[in-house]
């Protein structure tokens, strides 16, 4: 049973890595609609949970090509989340609020998102 769980984890990690491999960095001047913000303006934005606790910051805007943003790379600070490093999270999980973004997803779901190594 333990072997089966380990195998499933490896397959899941491989699928996540393949998914991130197909994404590229978006050009800084590309607008993220409907937010009316450029990719450059979104980078370094603070990421908060719905309670207003800071989770980390946006490192990169990724997409299916250099002009089609679909995900954000969040660098989690670890101290409040238990997560460290960068995770690739779909754009639709965020709500902008000035120069901050609120992440509306559970910790379990964040754990399922692929890591990002640039």
Automatic annotation (TrEMBL):
Keyword terms, alphabetized: Signal
UniProt domain PRC-barrel: residue ranges: 42-105
Signal among keywords: yes
InterPro entries the record matches: PRC-brl_dom, PRC_barrel-like_sf
Signal peptide coordinates: 1-18
Pfam families, A to Z: PRC
Gene3D superfamilies listed in its UniProt record: PRC-barrel domain (2.30.30.240)
Domain of life according to the entry: Bacteria
Cytoplasm among keywords: no
Protein name: PRC-barrel domain-containing protein
């Amino acid at each position: 049973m333990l072997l089966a769980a380990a195998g499933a984890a490896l397959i899941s990690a491989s699928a996540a890595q393949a998914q991130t491999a197909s994404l590229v960095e978006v050009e800084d001047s590309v607008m993220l609609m409907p937010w009316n913000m450029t990719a450059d303006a979104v980078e370094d934005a603070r990421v908060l949970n719905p309670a207003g606790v800071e989770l980390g910051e946006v490192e990169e805007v990724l997409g299916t090509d250099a002009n089609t943003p679909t995900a954000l790379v969040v660098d989690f600070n670890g101290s409040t989340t238990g997560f460290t490093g960068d995770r690739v999270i779909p754009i639709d999980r965020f709500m902008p609020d000035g120069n901050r973004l609120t992440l509306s997803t559970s910790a379990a779901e964040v754990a399922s998102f692929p890591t990002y190594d640039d």
